[in-house]
Amino acid sequence: MSNPPLSANSTILGIESSCDDTSAALLINGKIAANITASQDVHRKYGGVVPELASRAHQSHIIPVIQTALDTAGITIHQIDAIAVTQGPGLMGSLIVGVNTAKGLSLALKKPLIGVNHLHAHIAALYIEHDVVFPMLCLLVSGGHTQLIWAEAPGIYSLVGQTIDDAVGEAFDKGSKIMGMGYPGGPEIAHWSETGNDQFQKFPDSQTDSLDFSFSGIKTSLLYFLQKSQQRDPEFLATHRADVCASYQKALIDMLLKRVKKALKEFPAASIGLMGGVSANRLLRSEFATLGQTHQIPTYIPSFEYCTDNAAMIAQAGLYLGQQAQYMSMGALPYTRA
Amino acid sequence: MLLVLESSAGTPSLCLVNADGHIVFQRMAEHEKSHAECLPVFIQEALDFISETKGALLAVALNEGPGSYTGLRIGTSLAKGLCFGLQIPLIAVPGLQALGQWALNSFPKKERCFAMIDARRDEVYVQIYSRNKGLTPVEAQIITSGLWEIDTDLDVFMGNANTKAVALLHAEGVACEEGPYAVQLVSLALQKWRAEEYVSVAYFEPFYLKEFQAGISKKFSL
Predict the structure, then answer these.
(1) Range of the structural domain that residue A241 is part of
(2) Using an 8 Å Cβ cutoff, are A250 and A273 in contact?
(3) What is the mean pLDDT of chain A?
(4) Given CB atoms, is B70 within the 8 Å cutoff of chain A?
(5) B23 shares a domain with B87
(6) How close, in Å, is residue A96 to chain B by CA atoms?
(7) Are B10 and B71 in the same domain?
(8) Taking CB atoms and an 8 Å limit, are B82 and A62 in contact across chains?
(9) Residues A33, A152: one domain?
(10) Are residues A102 and A181 in the same domain?
(11) Does residue A1 have a pLDDT over 60?
(12) What is the Cα–Cα distance from B44 to B156, expressed in whole angstroms?
């Protein structure tokens, strides 16, 4: 028997486990009633996410996180109408935990299951707080993805540009690692940048045609610049860390915004949106907002809690799919790539 | 009814056991490594069967490991979702012990069972179950010629590493039984169900046996 479409006031349990955050959220009557995330500190010492450790941590976090979300929302598991879960892209071992827990719950409760594309969910994070005007040009920036997406309506998206190598989040992480700083690199570099001179060093932009990005060159450029500078003065990085961070961060953000400006000339956007983990970067948020003001179009940027991986955005994206009765079968598999 | 799940090795399977201990429903995948697509569908069919026979699912038992990390993860996640949704208890069955118990019950003339799960190359996860000495600890063992003295009259190999073990130990002629399958877990699962030996639905983790060792990359550093 096929399940009917969901109504707009349905109660949806969202589950996210695509990388190293285990998250559960409840969307009740169009509002996020709970959004609980357990992060995994275990990866910090390795300078990046270790997939096997992430999978094991998801396994021990997932039920307590769901229970905490239910308690926060003040409902029981039997009051939900559907379960939305990240189906991909992401790390396979991590996705397996979320998807199969969701399948088990769906079978137990006899409630429909919705498989959500994680990247589409980052766009849906905007719908939690904004009545978005379409068409919208989206800049999706995270540890694993850097994309320009043309959004004509909720769920109707086309890719217009993307990175041809590293994601911008990786560029932050690797830059931080080169400078002997912690993981994740974005917050570390942003912190040091606050007191630095962003004109201290010019890093080259990549020469990509079209609207694609490339971040592998700037990372190598940073490494060579520091190696040379340290040879001249072993105290160079200790003395100029803030300046190097500020210059590197500014160069990465300029590379992002240059493509957005170029895309705005080609696409008649009624609004622009910024989303993904790197959208928590304060300088990027501010410069992106300025860009919207310059073009006199609305700019949408999620609150910090909806920038990084979270289940609220999964529940929100799940609502749109559920309203069209686009459900996931029990035999459907998670996927690692979009 | 008790649902018994096996997902620790190549071929996933499940069965339903009624209160009298009889297996009333069973499913086994036709293809190896098809856990993610087969097990949820099999569970759906098992729940439909329970509904048609006006029964109730009272507990879920699963092979806790050791075995394939991915397989264990799929089985554990499904079992947790089911148990949390239905508010029923979860039973963790030590897989190798269950295989040993099943083999010695099934072959009354055998004295000792080598329950083994393939752990790649020449390694196995092994537990030896003998009638007079009981169980050895579960360990990861690289099999070398002469590691164990095999008595082809009294020993039985059980699991999914039999061909490899026979070749490496030069134990041609020893009795071999393939597994693990859900039906082989039933005896120990029932004992635990009747003794109400449950594990935490929230915090249970599979028995991986090995601690995961990750290296720290030196790439991208000054």
Answers:
(1) 133-297
(2) no
(3) 95
(4) yes
(5) yes
(6) 6
(7) yes
(8) no
(9) no
(10) no
(11) no
(12) 35
Tokens of B188: 């120990």
**Using a CB-CB distance cutoff of 8 angstroms, which residues of chain B are in contact with residue A62?**
77, 80
B16 touching chain A per CB within 8 A = no
- Over 70: is that where the pLDDT of A272 sits? yes
Question: pLDDT tens across A188-199, in order?
Answer: 999 999 999 999
CATH of the domain at A177: 3.30.420.40
State the burial class of residue A231 (Cβ atoms within 10 Å of its Cβ: 0-12, 13-18, 19+).
Answer: exposed
Is residue B100, in this structure, part of any structural domain at all? no
B84 touches chain A (CB under 8 A): yes
Neighbours of A78 (CB within 10 A): 11
Q: Are strands B13-17 and B2-6 parallel, antiparallel or unpaired?
A: antiparallel
Domain assignment present for A329: no
The answer to whether the predicted template modeling score (pTM) of the entire model surpasses 0.80 is yes
Reading the block at residue B84, the tokens are: 């949390």
What would the pLDDT profile of A111-149 be if each residue is shown by its tens digit?
999 999 999 999 999 999 999 999 999 999 988 899 999
CB contact under 8 A, B202 and A67: yes
Q: Do A137 and A120 lie in a common domain?
A: no
Q: Are B148 and B212 members of one domain?
A: no
Q: How confident is the model at residue B216 (pLDDT cuts 50, 70, 90)?
A: low
What is the ipTM for the molecules in this complex? Answer: 0.95
Q: How far is A59 from chain B (nearest CA, A)?
A: 7
DSSP state of A79: G
Residue B178: the pLDDT is: 97
